[in-house]
Amino acid sequence: MALTGTWVDPYSNVSLSILGKSPSALSIDVNYGPLPCNRVNPTLTLSPPNPSAQSGTNVVYTLSLTNNDTAGCTSSTFNLASTLPAGFVTAFGAAALTVSPGQTLSTTMTKSVPAGFTPGTYAINAAATDTNHSASAGANVTVTAPPEPITVSLVASPTTVAVRSNVTLTATVAKSSGPVSGASVTFTVIRPGGGTSTATATTNASGVAAVSYRAQQRGNYSATARATSNGATATSSSAAFSAN
Questions:
Q1: Which of 119, 144, 169 is the last residue of a domain?
Q2: Phi and psi at residue 179, in whole multiples of 5°?
Q3: Which end of the chain is more exposed for a tag (fewer CB within 10 A), N or C?
Q4: Per-residue pLDDT tens digits of the chain, which is 244 residues long
C-alpha cells in the first residue's frame, strides 16, 4: 500500500506529511501547529459542606474554581454570585477569579445569618460564569439559636485593706431562669500604676465564683469579671478597692 498524504492529530494539532520514501527510510515533515482551544465548563466546589452558625453571626466557606479548558485556550475571568438562602447577605473575598487552563484558584464566600433567623438547615449556592462557561456548587448551613444571655455582677470585700492584705472578689452569674453553674469566670485586677493580674474560677450551684487577691501595693485598685457559659459571655461593671 502506498504511503502518501498528511495526518493531523486533532488534540495536539501536530501534522505529519510524507515527503519521500525508500526501501530503508521514510522522509517525514513534522509541523507543530497552534494548540486547539476547547472550552469546557469549570469545576466549582464549596467547603465545608454543612457548617453551623448562630443567627446574627457569619459563616465562611472556601470557594474553589478549576478551569477545565484545554491548554490552547487563554485564561478566563469568572464572575461569582450566590442567591441562597434568601435574606442572607453574601460577601466574596474576590468578586471574580481569573483562572488559566488547568489552574485552580480559591477565595472566600461569607454568609451573614440575619438576627432572629429561624433555626434549621438551609441550602447554600454559588455560581461562576463568563461568556463561555457556567458552573454551580452547593452546600448547606445549619442555623442555631444564639445562647441565652447571661449577666455577671462583681463585689470586692472589704473595699479598704491594709497593704499586703487579701480582698475577696465574688462574681455572681445568672440568666433569666436563675443561677448559672459551671460558668468560667476570669477576674482581672488593675493595680495602682496600671499593671494587671488575672485569676479564674468556676461558678458553683448558686452561680457564685470567688477568688482571693492580695493587694501588694498601696493605692487604688479596679477589678472586673468576665463570665462564659455555653457560648454566652458577659462582663461585670468594675468593682473598686484600695490598700493603705
A1: 144
A2: -60, 150
A3: N
A4: 455 556 566 656 665 666 666 677 667 667 665 689 999 999 999 999 999 999 999 999 999 999 999 999 999 999 999 999 999 999 999 999 999 999 999 999 999 999 999 999 999 999 999 999 999 999 999 999 988 999 999 999 999 999 999 999 999 999 999 999 999 999 999 999 899 999 999 999 999 999 999 999 999 999 999 999 998 999 999 999 999 9
Q: Residue 97 maps to which CATH number? A: 2.60.40.10
Inter-CA distances, 173 with 89, 155, 208, 224, Å = 35, 12, 6, 13
Indicate whether 137 and 194 sit together in one domain. Answer: no
Burial track 207-225 (b if 16+ CB lie within 10 A, e otherwise):
bbbbbebebeeeeebebbb
Domain count, the chain: 3
**What pTM did the predictor assign?**
0.64
* Burial of 192 (C-beta count, 10 Å sphere; 0-12/13-18/19+): middle
Residue finishing a domain among 144, 170, 187: 144
